[in-house]
Amino acid sequence: MDATSLKAQLQSDLHDAMRARDKVRSSTLRMTLTSVTTAEVAGDEARELGDDEVLKVIAREAKKRREAATAFRDAHRPELADGEEAELAVLEAYLPAQLGDEELRAVVERAVAATGATGPADMGRVMKAAQGEVAGRADGGRVAAIVKAALTSR
After folding, report:
1. How far apart (Å, rounded) are the C-alpha atoms in residues 59 and 35?
2. What is the CATH number of domain 5-92?
3. Architecture of the domain delimited by 101-152
4. CA atoms of 154 and 152, how far apart (whole Å)
5. Residue 90: which of 150, 33, 153 has the closest Cα?
6. What string of pLDDT tens digits covers the 154 residues of the chain?
């Protein structure tokens, strides 16, 4: 797989969505590609993002949509929440399958064992180890909650 394959896939899918006049899909992909381009030119010099970095951008965009949808629901604006959730569905198609709660607990338990964590003070070390294995397959908030629960029960 070459370094631009995920970005190229996004661009190809954007063209298909535009031809199909799929407004939600095309606007979501356009915003995501803009975020990828912004990430490419951030820092000291412009560079091409690899698939892992493009996935992180997509995950960040998905998190924004998830949080916005929740905020709109809490504000009793279901029509706006529905729009955010539609965009989230488009983005989730590009993300790896999310881990279930049991799989996530197993990852956290391995991270606790690997770091020798004994309590809540070790949360940072355990999070770092767990996030390495999770690699975008679970939201950081979910990982943190399970790590916290695992460490407070020790």
Report:
1. 11
2. 1.10.1510.10
3. Orthogonal Bundle (1.10)
4. 5
5. 33
6. 444 489 999 999 999 999 999 999 999 999 999 999 999 999 888 898 888 889 989 989 999 999 999 999 999 999 999 999 999 999 999 998 888 889 999 999 999 999 988 888 899 999 999 988 887 788 888 999 999 998 887 6
Identity of the amino acid at 78: P
Residue count (the chain): 154
Handedness of CA 20, 24, 28, 30 (dihedral sign): positive
DSSP 96: P
Tell whether the torsion through CA atoms of 134, 144, 97 and 12 is positive or negative.
negative
Alpha-carbon gap, residue 3 to 9, rounded angstroms: 11
Per-domain residue ranges of the chain:
5-92, 101-152
Single-letter amino acid, residue 19: R
Helix (H, G, I), strand (E, B) or coil at 137: coil
